[in-house]
Amino acid sequence: MDLMLMTALKFLRLMLAGAACCVLTAHATSISFTLTDDRGRVVVIDKAPQRVISLLPSLGEIVCELKACDLLVGVDRYSNWPERVRSLPKLGGLDDTQLEALVKLKPDLVLLARSSRVTQRLESLGIKVVALEPQSQEDMHRVIQHIAGALHLPNAKERADRLWQSIQQKLDTAAARVPKLAKGARIYFEAGSGYFAAGEASYIGETLKRLGLVNVVTPAMGSFPQVNPEFVVKANPQIIFMGERAATDLKTRPGWQRIEAIQQHKICSFSPDQSDIVVRSGPRMPEAADLMVACLKRLYPE
Q: Whole-angstrom Cα distance, residue 302 to residue 39?
């Protein structure tokens, strides 16, 4: 009788353990992550993606800084950091994404810009799409959190917050190194050809403000407005930031010889590799700030 009782109790324990296991497994697989992307679409990601494609350099950089670079199986043609992404399949740009090559990679999540032209086509093929295109630092914080959650990373919120705090601390360190003579200087930042400027409301403008500089492109003008060349002449910036290729024709721009920055040779120009760092809304913002500060130190030696 005792033997039968012991056998029954052992069987009961096994049954309970199995039931508990099943409950835990069911609970784990039922956890999903929901976000509202930059199209205003609610996206539900039921399980951790195993094959991720990024079609915007800054989004891929965030994935890698969250220590999830191994999930990437393809990127856009402009992605070049960190080193690991250089060997991944390149799938074109915003307007010419190679759809067939992308589909062959069998992604279960594609991260792309809000302005990407392939979004609807990918969704029609049943591929999960998240559109994220940060314009400000607050946007960037949100995007980091969304990506960490979408990837179902362990302790996603804490991991995202740690990355964001690290970025902020490094920006503070860069700001402390700005020469005193540069503080309060009026600046113009040309972010792209055609007189597209980085306004104070942009992530670039917010970094410049943090460094103690005064942007001639006000928040009311937008994040990246196309400005009239005459506006820049009238604003008369004391420092100009731009790519080194654009900087070669500054003196030939009508009326720009009157600008104080040009008269005083206060030009911060960036190489193509440096420009990739400076203009991207990704986790390398502190490096962008360091490049700006390095130039300011050359312009205002102490």
A: 47
Find the helix packing angle between 203-210 and 156-175, rounded to 10°. 50
pLDDT per position as a tens digit, 61-115: 999 999 999 999 999 999 999 999 999 999 999 889 999 999 999 999 999 999 9
DSSP string, 210-229: HTT-EESS-GGG-SSPBPPH
Where do the domains of the chain lie, and which CATH numbers do they carry?
A: 33-168 (3.40.50.1980), 178-299 (3.40.50.1980)
How confident is the prediction for the chain on average, in pLDDT? 91
CA distance 59 to 192: 20
Alpha carbon distance 60, 67 (integer Å): 11
DSSP 3-state helix, strand, coil percentages of the chain (rounded to 5)?
A: 50, 15, 35
Q: Which residue's structure tokens are 């060349």?
A: 229
The per-residue b/e assignment along 1-19, b for 16 or more CB within 10 angstroms, e otherwise, is eeeeeeeeeeeeeeeeeee
Given a contact cutoff of 8 angstroms between Cβ atoms, the answer to whether 79 and 93 are in contact is no
Question: Which uninterrupted H or E stretch holds 90?
Answer: none
Distance CA 187, CA 197 (A): 11
Q: Residue 33: helix, strand or coil by DSSP?
A: strand
User: What's the pTM value of the predicted model, to 2 decimals?
Assistant: 0.87
Q: b/e for 111-146, b at 16 or more Cβ within 10 A?
A: bbbeebebbeebeeeebbbbbbbbbbbebbbbbbbb
- Local structure of 105: helix, strand or coil: coil
What values do phi and psi take at 83, rounded to 5?
A: -55, -35
**Which residue, among 147, 160, 58, 71, has the nearest Cα to 107 in the 3D structure?**
71
Closest CA to 137 of 194, 205, 75, 187: 205
